[in-house]
Amino acid sequence: MVVEELRARIMKLDNEIDLQRKLLKKLERERSLAQGQLNAVLDPMARLPLEISSEIFLQSLAPSACEVQHVPIVLLNICNAWTEIAKATAALWTKIAIHFPCGDGLAEVLPIWFQRASNRALSITISLRGPSGGWNHHVSSVLWKHGERLKYLEILHDDDFASRERDGTVDLLGTTSWLPETSLPSLETLVLRCQHRRRMYFASQTFELIRLAPNIIELVFDKIELDFDPDSDLNENLEKLFAPTLRRLIFEDGFEIDYNNDDVLDFLSLPALETLSLRGYCITGETLLDFIERSGAPLQELALGCYNPHSSVSLHQCLRVIPSLTRFTISDDVSRVIPDLVSALADYPSLLPHLCNLTIHTWPDGRSDLSDSSWKALVRALSARRMQFRMVNVALSPPADFLASLRELVLDGVEIYIGSEERNFIAQSP
Is residue 227 part of a domain? Predict the structure, then answer.
């Protein structure tokens, strides 16, 4: 009898414990809810409208996609309120950096990331390191499934690692199997960049990638030169590139000028081009003129490296066929093509009638070797055209009489800067 009573008592206590546990869990849930409500009341972020709190989150993003991808993840781990705001802010998830080589796990994360971006355009930076870039084909397959939404694509190559692999041209793609089978219809900006020093990429591979973007607007090469060697197997079937929508073609500055290669212009036809920057090249007049006439583009901004003085076509002959130009920049020895340029601007009002900004970067160790006649022509050109003028890396001040004339123009509202980056001769007191 005692045994049965004890068993019954234990069963009753067990039931009571289960009830108390359920009650405790209920109380813990209610407490957690109340704490969350209290946090929401005390948290100024949670009291803001979603539009404002989302904008605050967006302001925390870094400008570079390489640095931006950790921000949304951090916001998810602050509190429930911030998690909900982050998930509801689609713009937080439109940028991502993908570093190859990587594991297959990223192929499971990408669909979630892109789903949170809703239907917004995507900006993706792909960082390549290791043999053939270390592509993971599971990841790239998921990536290109969302390729129709891709608006900005940057491919960053670890050129230091590439230089340890080989001293010649970098095999950018390694294998073409990572490329999407269809085009990238929304892609507007493509950036190809080497991280540390100038490298060469095969032109055929680069053109293949560009052709996947039928609506491309901007193309940027940073520390990259294209290899057009016809003896290379990869360049065997190289076709010239016709890009009817491209408006901006930029070869970024920051490296020494190549005096032997401006072949890139021979392979391009860009009828919509508005901005062209070739600061890393020594341009021959024949090549430049052929490109301008072949493209027939409404160029507005042009930046050149040095101009080959042995060209049979003068610089101002090339400029004459682009009357739409408003900004022109050239880097050269001030004693070579610059005198002819300023004389032509002074003597021929029909030359570049819309030019409003002229910048001359002289060679870093160069001195002001302009003759008096060239200084006189410069003063006449600036007086007539009233354009903004900069001549940088000039070691010596202009002759006193011309300096006085230039300062008078400045007092009359013309923007003029002549000197080094630290020292402006025009601004100094007489």
Answer: no
